[in-house]
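Here is the promised in-class demo. Please do not try to memorize the tokens; focus on the logic of going from shape to residues.
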């Protein structure tokens, strides 16, 4: 066994492939699938966005996820130390460790706004259970949501509750915390998704939803749609933030990286598409607008639930589904930082959890205030703190992290080490290497060029 295969004595390991698949799929299946994917699909032309998104998953997402898992398993360290170790193994500069540190930071920044949105979800579980959506119209739903956003203490309360639950699981470690939570929540999540799809087929306009999402409409494919789809592919698969790398560092060497990556990507994409079909079925059945933006599930769906049979119960189940998805993703967002602190400083896991928890609570509280008391404070390009963190992480840091990992695996690591970890056949390995060396970097660079106006 190579030196890279020997983890530190205190590190845990996944019990088997399926616990890794469930946990990593849980990392991928979050607000990105259930909150962000539907509203981005609606706002970007429906099938045009879905088509580009699926291509991004196949051509970029899967090869890059394989790359990140491979880096983590090879080093069996936290992202920052993993990149430093692998660079030393390849006789390259230790400055590559900054790629890992950027991933750690990205996860913290994402959780800064993620926990606030997840707090909205918890609030809507209670609202649905109390019948707050019954008979509500568009103006009423909008007013209800605006009143909620205008209350800083309520936003901070729900943000605090969600973060406390997340940190409780993380503090328990890999097997007692992450594995156990994934083994319970992921099957529950799948069951609720199937129930929602069945409900939407029974009372919604499923045929119109399918046409909206899957009827080809190439005219609507624009550079903006491509940018959005690529950024979302990174966001939904958790690529570039160190989560996949640190999860990969707990993976046994006998497990196929390629096969497990395909399982994860297929599970994540299928859930996103099923949720989209269910949501748009309800939207179209009630004559609502699919291009409602970020408020789609918080303003538009309550109207549908308010007039449909068993709407209160289904609304509550839907937001429980969203909460489960958000929870599994949030756990993965902090794991890279927890691993980095415990492996570099004299901190126990619980102490590291407190450090990250307090840091994220402060950041999340500031984000919550950006919707009310600090709404007029614009930081960069007229963006408030919430919008800035969203765009910075989704459109810049995640693709940048993926680009750096692709360049490192494709041009810096020794070919023999990469081939040893992936264990692919000659043709499959050649295709993967071509994607990592050429397709992924050129695609990401083209998106950056458009983003910064170089191609305009």
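The designed amino acids, position by position:
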């Amino acid at each position: 066994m190579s030196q890279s295969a020997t983890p530190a004595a205190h590190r845990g390991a996944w019990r088997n492939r399926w616990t890794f698949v469930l946990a990593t799929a849980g990392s991928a299946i979050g607000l990105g699938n259930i909150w962000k994917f539907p509203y981005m699909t609606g706002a970007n032309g429906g099938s045009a966005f879905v088509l580009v998104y699926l291509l991004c998953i196949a051509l970029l997402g899967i090869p890059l996820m394989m790359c990140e898992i491979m880096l983590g398993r090879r080093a069996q360290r936290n992202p920052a130390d993993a990149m430093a170790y692998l660079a030393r193994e390849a006789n390259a500069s230790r400055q590559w460790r900054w790629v890992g540190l950027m991933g750690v930071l990205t996860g913290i920044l994402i959780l800064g706004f993620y926990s606030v949105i997840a707090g909205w979800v918890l609030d809507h579980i209670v609202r649905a259970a109390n019948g707050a959506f019954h008979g509500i119209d568009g103006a009423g739903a909008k007013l209800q949501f605006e009143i909620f956003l205008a209350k800083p203490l309520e936003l901070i309360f729900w943000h605090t509750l969600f973060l406390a639950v997340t940190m409780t699981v993380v503090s328990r470690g890999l097997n007692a915390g992450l594995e156990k939570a994934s083994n319970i929540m992921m099957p529950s999540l799948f069951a609720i998704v199937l129930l929602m799809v069945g409900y939407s087929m029974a009372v919604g306009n499923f045929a119109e939803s399918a046409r909206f999402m899957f009827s080809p409409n190439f005219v609507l494919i624009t550079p903006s749609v491509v940018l959005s789809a690529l950024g979302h592919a990174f966001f939904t698969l958790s690529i570039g933030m160190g989560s996949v790398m640190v999860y990969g560092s707990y993976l046994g060497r006998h497990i196929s990286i390629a096969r497990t990556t395909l399982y994860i990507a297929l599970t994540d994409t299928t859930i996103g598409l099923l949720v989209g079909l269910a949501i748009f079925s309800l939207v179209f059945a009630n004559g609502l607008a699919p291009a409602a933006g970020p408020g789609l599930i918080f303003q538009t769906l309550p109207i549908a639930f308010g007039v449909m049979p068993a709407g209160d119960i289904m609304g509550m189940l839907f937001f429980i589904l969203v909460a489960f998805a958000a929870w599994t993703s949030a756990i993965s967002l902090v794991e890279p930082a927890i691993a980095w602190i415990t492996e570099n400083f004299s901190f126990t896991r619980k102490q590291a959890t407190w450090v990250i928890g307090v840091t994220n609570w402060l950041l999340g509280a500031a984000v919550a205030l950006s919707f009310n008391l600090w709404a007029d404070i614009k930081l960069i390009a007229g963006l408030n703190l919430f919008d800035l963190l969203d765009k910075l992480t989704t459109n810049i840091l995640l693709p940048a992290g993926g680009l750096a990992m692709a360049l490192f695996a494709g041009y810096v690591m020794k070919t023999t080490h990469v081939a040893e970890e992936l264990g692919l056949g000659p043709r499959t390995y050649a295709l993967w290497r071509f994607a990592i060396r050429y397709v992924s970097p050129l695609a990401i660079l083209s998106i950056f060029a458009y983003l910064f106006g170089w191609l305009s």
